[in-house]
Amino acid sequence: MAKPVVLTGLRANSEFHLGNYLGGILPMIQLQKKFAGDYQLNMFVPDLHSFTTPVEHSKLYLQIIDNLKVYVAAGLDLDNEDTFIYRQSYVAGHSELAVILNNFAYFGELQRMTQFKEKSDQAKDTNITAGLFDYPVLMAADILLYGAKWIPVGEDQRQHIELTRDIALRMNNKFGEDLLHVPVEWEEQLKFAGRESGVRIRSLKTPEKKMSKSVDDPAGTILLSDNPEDAAKKVMSATTDSIGVIRYDMKNQAGISNLLQILALLIDAPLAEVIANWEGKTSYGDLKTAVASEVKVFLTDFQRKLANVEEPELMRKLEASEYLMRDVATQNLYKIQQAVGLRP
Ligand code: ATP
Ligand code: MG
């Protein structure tokens, strides 16, 4: 029996922020530690997704390699033989499957995707591309191409996971239950990743919004490359509220709740425990100081590790993984091509 596949990808449109780390990278590192040997781990760079928001094309290639280094600095063990790192555009099957899946995804359901609505609002006076509209289908292809069961991603990707399930179930309904592995439901995904709730790190400046790579919000965003002292200052200046008592309440106290969530993830403690420690206290300054100090420790340690990542070793693993994944993808794609009538 093949091992169940855990898969995640982070776009390389720009540098990573703390939200990417806590919502997308950290769960994979933790799962690798917990389940090494029992699962296959695919941690890839969805480079073809880079163009859905403005990107500096001349810098993209190096950004992709830099982002892969971040996976290693964050603790991904490249020696683990069940772990694969690869660039989406180096495995042609992703694009081919996306073209097929496009015909089983509905215009109406893509139009309802919150990310599409938010990002097309952000685009303001620039044109909204078909690539932005269609990216959830490419994401479904990224997942279904490997029969991935587990996809530990941030809360913002929940709808896209659900769409992937819908497309897979629709195709299985038409072509037979065995065609595609359907990723498990969101609540199960959370349990698997050991999370009590979805992770959605907010902007420190505008906590109603998520921290994001493609929004210009330097005071609200902690980049993994930020000077640790500067990052601590951003935390100290985080927007809170005038209620004056600490509560975990994303609706009315988003800034404070965001800090509690960041703290819990950075110290690897259950959110409930951190809430219990802080709820009812009245000094927002103490909470900010605690978070700022953890952010500083984390960034200092992370940046030291990043400086020590061996690029030749990374490139060897990358190319070997891509070689293997092309094979896996071709085989899986063939089954789908057969089902839809493109192959005998
Ligand atoms: P963009 O805003 O341009 O879409 P992004 O910051 O959302 O960029 P992605 O590459 O789209 O980055 O997402 C990569 C991973 O990071 C996904 O698993 C996503 O769920 C997670 N992620 C992104 N933002 C956050 C956030 N604010 N909190 C938690 N997880 C996040
Ligand atoms: Mg995103």
Largest sheet: 3 strands, parallel
Query: What is the mean pLDDT?
Result: 96
**In angstroms, what is the radius of gyration?**
20 Å
CATH architecture of the largest domain: 3-Layer(aba) Sandwich
Total helical segments = 13
Q: Which descriptor suits the 3D outline? A: globular
| Broad CATH class of the largest domain | Alpha Beta
Helix content: 40-55%
What is the fourth-level CATH superfamily of the largest domain?
HUPs
Bound molecules: adenosine-5'-triphosphate, magnesium ion
Question: How many domains make up the coordinates?
Answer: 2
CATH topology of the largest domain: Rossmann fold
Q: If strands are numbered along the chain, what order do they take across the biggest sheet?
A: 1-2-3
Describe the structure.
This protein is mostly helical and 344 residues long. The chain folds into two domains: 5-194 and 310-339, Rossmann fold (3-Layer(aba) Sandwich); 228-306, Tyrosyl-Transfer RNA Synthetase (Orthogonal Bundle). The protein has 13 helices and three strands. It has helices spanning 18-35, 57-73, 93-101, 107-111, 114-122, 130-144, 158-175, 186-192, 228-236, 254-267, 271-278, 284-307, 311-339; strands spanning 5-9, 40-45, 83-87. A three-stranded parallel beta sheet has the order 1-2-3. Helix 1 links the parallel strand 1 and strand 2. Helix 3 (93-101) packs parallel to helix 13 (311-339) and helix 6 crosses helix 7. The longest helix has 29 residues, at 311-339. The structure holds adenosine-5'-triphosphate and magnesium ion. Residues 10-11, 13, 19-20, 22-24, 53, 153-154, 156-157, 199-201, 210-214 line the site of adenosine-5'-triphosphate.
